[in-house]
Amino acid sequence: MKKITGLTLAAIASFSLTAGAAGFSDSSGHWAETYINALSESGVVNGVTDTKFEPEGIVTRAQYLKMIMEAVGVPAAEYRYGECLDASAGDWYAPYLQAALDAGLIPESMITGMDIKVEYEVDENGSAVSSKVIYSGAFNGNLPITREEMAVLTQYFYQYSKTVLTDERVEFDNKSADSFSDSADISDWAKISVSQAVENGFIKGMDDGTFMPKATATRAQAAAIIYRVINS
After folding, report:
1. Which of 64, 42, 38 has the alpha carbon at shortest distance from 197?
2. Are 220 and 39 spatial neighbours (Cβ–Cβ below 8 Å)?
3. Helix (H) or strand (E) run with residue 82 in it
4. What is the 3-state secondary structure (H, E, C) of 18-70?
């Protein structure tokens, strides 16, 4: 299993959910304080400064992609020019996006202008000996991630870790998303994954019974999900 800042996932999972020594000044009394502190103490998340976490700050697509990949132990991959959508070699998240694309874990609906082509390698007789899928389009890693996008990536990578990395199988009833009063606002492509992520207890709705699928996810929400995934 991939290490995260020097601690194995098993070790991180053993951390108790307490408001410990991290003590960010802007997170004291926040609903996610215990999640934030537990992850900060184990090195999974960092504050924006030594004393502030900005729990209501935004999370970008790239930032959450890195967080969920490390949470489930999916390693980054070497960046390959022309095969990583709009990410360039200088983008810090390119190795994470490359690995996610290689595993087919970026939903098509999160790729603007997506196009797919298959490149074949042929032998001297013209027979195909290998092939690879090349995606084109834009991931827009610096865009804020929405709650439904966060739920989808969470479930995609969690399921991948179970079926590919550990060869486990998980069954779902796919009914949970319908319980939200704004379930009709959840994009069709995201509904199943939102249901599964809710059923797994990774993501929850709002106090008023809505899910707010198109709302920008916060750093606090991301921290809570990552904690729950690590400890699942």
Report:
1. 64
2. no
3. none
4. CCCCCCCCCCCCCCCHHHHHHHHHCCCCCCCCCCCCCCCCECEHHHHHHHHHH
Q: How many CA atoms lie within 13 A of 73 on its CB side?
A: 19
Question: 3-class DSSP state for residue 118?
Answer: strand
Distances (CA, A) of 27 to 57, 158, 228: 12, 27, 19
DSSP 204-222: ---TTS---TTSBPBHHHH
Q: What is the CA radius of gyration of the chain?
A: 19
Kind and range of the H or E element at 128?
A: strand 128-138
Distance CA(114)–CA(225), nearest Å, equals 28
| pTM of the complete model | 0.82
- Over residues 115-162, the pLDDT tens digits come to 888 777 777 766 666 677 788 899 999 999 999 999 999 999 999 998
Buried b (16+ CB within 10 A) or exposed e, 124-141: eeeeeeeeeeebebebbb
